């Protein structure tokens, strides 16, 4: 779960529509900006689950060397720190050595949501 605000925790996100605004190269990353219509499921400070429709602008980034991935069989990615298999859906660090994992080396990552 991710903290959405000081009073809410984001537990699910559904993308209803996306319109590309622009793209650019920044340093060694591809960056895209898009308008999006989302349905966010949050838990509020009173522990109630709420669904909200949100219109927002998203900024996503990935390393220039990242390739569009089509997985046809099990692929294993290794930690640069200790060589252990890593899970890209984890919290951004190796569970064995706590080495930070730059997820943008593998796919698009959410950089900013307004």
Question: Could you explain how this protein is built, in words?
Answer:
The structure is a single chain. With about 110 residues, the chain is an all-beta fold. The protein has one domain. Helices cover about 0% and strands about 50% of the residues. The chain is built from no helices and seven strands. The protein has strands at about 1-5, 10-25, 30-45, 50-65, 75-80, 85, 110-114. It has a five-stranded antiparallel sheet, with no helix packed on it. A hairpin with a 2-residue loop joins strand 2 and strand 3. The protein is flat and about 40 Å long.
How would you summarize what this structure contains?
Helix content is 0%, strand content 52%. The protein is mainly beta and 114 residues long.
Q: Between the first and last Cα atoms, what is the distance in angstroms? A: 18 Å
Helix content: under 10%
Count of β-strands: 7
Question: Judging from the principal axes of the Cα atoms, what is the shape?
Answer: flat
Count of the domains:
1
* Uncertain segments: none
Strand content: over 45%
Order of the strands making up the biggest sheet: 1-2-3-4-7
What is the radius of gyration?
16 Å
Order of helices and strands: EEEEEEE
Tally of alpha and pi helices: 0
């Amino acid at each position: 779960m991710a903290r959405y605000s000081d009073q809410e925790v984001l537990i699910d996100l559904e993308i209803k529509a996306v319109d590309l605004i622009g793209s650019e190269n920044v340093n060694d990353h591809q960056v895209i900006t898009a308008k999006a219509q989302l349905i966010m499921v949050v838990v509020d400070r009173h522990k109630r689950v709420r669904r909200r429709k949100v219109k927002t602008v998203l900024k996503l980034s990935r390393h220039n060397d990242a390739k569009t991935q089509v997985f046809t069989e099990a692929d294993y990615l290794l930690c640069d720190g200790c060589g252990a298999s890593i899970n890209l859906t984890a919290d951004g660090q190796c569970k064995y050595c706590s080495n930070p994992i730059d997820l943008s080396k593998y796919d698009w990552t959410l950089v900013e949501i307004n």
